[in-house]
Amino acid sequence: MSWRKPIAPLLAAAALLWGTAGCGFQPLYGEQANAVSEQALAEVRISPLRDRVGQLLHIRLSKNMHPRGPARVAKWDLGIQLISRTEQLGIRKDETATRANLVLEAKFALRDVGTGKPAFQGRSVITISYNILESRFGTVASRSDAERRATRELGDNIKNRVALFLAQRTTASAR
Question: Which of 22, 79, 83, 156 could bridge to 105 as Cys pair (CB 3.0-4.6 Å)?
Answer without folding.
Answer: 83
